[in-house]
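Continuing from the previous page of notes. For each protein in this section, the sequence appears first, followed by its structure tokens. Read the first protein now.
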Amino acid sequence: MTGAPHPHPTQAVILAGGQGSRLRPYTDDRPKPMVEIPGTGTPIIGHQLNWLAQEGVTDAVVSCGHLAAVLQEWLDRARLPLRVTTVVETEPLGRGGGLKHAAASLPRPDEPWYATNGDIWTRFPLREMADFHHERDAEATLALARPRIPWGAVETDAFGHVLDFIESPPSPYLINAGVYVFAATFTDLLPARGDHERTTFPRLARERRLAGYPLPHGAYWRAIDTAKDLTEAAKELGSEGR
């Protein structure tokens, strides 16, 4: 499906309901997406909303759960670059169920949409990912990252001699980066409860309707899971002026 122009998505869902237990004590009094990256004065979700707006998104639905009121209060008083609606999971629905629940509040249900996990800090051209998705006629496209291994690696030869030590090498495997482009019809394929990565995605992969978009070379990506991730993100932001 190349050649014909197509509209890029202008709506998105942010999954922001997780408890963030590995980020305690930061998450004792706030949900994970409300944790600030040191030195920026802005919570993770604030950076995400700014990025989405820069990429042409005009409407975002934020799926809340753990300490939802804290997030809603911040959204109410913040100066936001786009329209934001919140929905609250009164009981855990799983990632797939949470996506389906939030997608029901998208303003344009007959149009494609982006989605992102609420603990991802990244910058890359979403419109290019949407073009990739469209060209492959995919039902869903997930961004793929190649994170660095947090340990040093040892390189050996076939005989067992150590040749080199490599500090935090890139992983040989691509991983799900937690950012997606979905066709409008994808919503109907999501489970009401449970994890779409164990149900919907494997089914689409078998049908060759699931695409994987490798993040462009040099694109910044980090999942904020631990206090060390916060420290590393602050250091990277400071050194690279992001």
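Done with the first. The second protein uses the same format. Note its length before scrolling.
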Amino acid sequence: MDKTLVEEYRGGALECVHSGHICGVSISGAVKYAVGDVESLTYLRSSGKPFQAIPVIKHGADRKFGLSDKETAIMIGSHRAETFHVEALESMLTKIGVGEEALVCHPTYPLSVPASEAMLRAQKPKRSIYHNCSGKHLGILALCKTMGYPTEGYFEPDHPAQIEIVDTLAYLSECPREHIHIGTDGCGFPVFAIPLKHLATAFLKLACPEVIEDLEIRSAVIRITALMNEHYEMIAGSDRICSSLLMDPNIVAKGGAKGVYCFGLKKEKLGFALKVMDGSEDEWPIITASILEQIGYSNQETIDRMYQLTPTDITNDNKKIIGTNKAVFTLESI
């Protein structure tokens, strides 16, 4: 059963309640912290992008096409199509040797409001590379060309690239492959649902690759997580939670649509996964800040950045304080 995670008050009266689940696992693989149901089946959505990038790095597709570190990092990102994102994506199209029409993700305008407004003012058309998942798609197309796989249908669940992705996720999450539910994501890719505790386990291994026995996968994880920290701006964008958390070199983090957020802590050797059941993302920073505070996390600057993204004070359009956000859950030690 889900538990209340965040309450929102306006004028002293309760207006909104956001419920969900949280799971924290230790390096032993055991559940250490729980709120709600750690077995809750959860679609990874874009929190799965680090795992989808592993076969690309494992087989050296980034090296084959001479991709820069920033270009490789955006494969893992949910970018906002800011100028520096678009520059990297256009360069990738050229280096990989594919046309934009090869991407199954639908043409759209940037998620970045300033970038989208600039496109509209200039009367520029929607483009597939503006889609926040386009870096992931280009990465898999690069993998296909490296391995000799067909690029047609690269997004189908029975494509060899997609089969390797789900096998990789099963290995790192310790969720049996036959128990992984497969749906279709908004961008056209397969999307996977696993119990929350397995998702936390997978992020624990991103933060602590020393526990990964497969040396090729371990090496790919080390490179991927280093890129996430070094080029955090490519993973999300300006003033986004993923980029803000990844400024901290001790954290590996990635969120997805419909309220799922995950992060691993390197020194503390912990992996966390959470799901806001109403699908809201606005509560992620305040929930993450509360988790970090409750475990005694030492980097106060990281916690402060979370509260800058989602302040405890709710303000109206005139910047007047009219209410309060409050994280109300308590991590239960198992």
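What the second structure shows: The radius of gyration is 19 Å. The mean pLDDT is 97. We return to this in next week's lecture.
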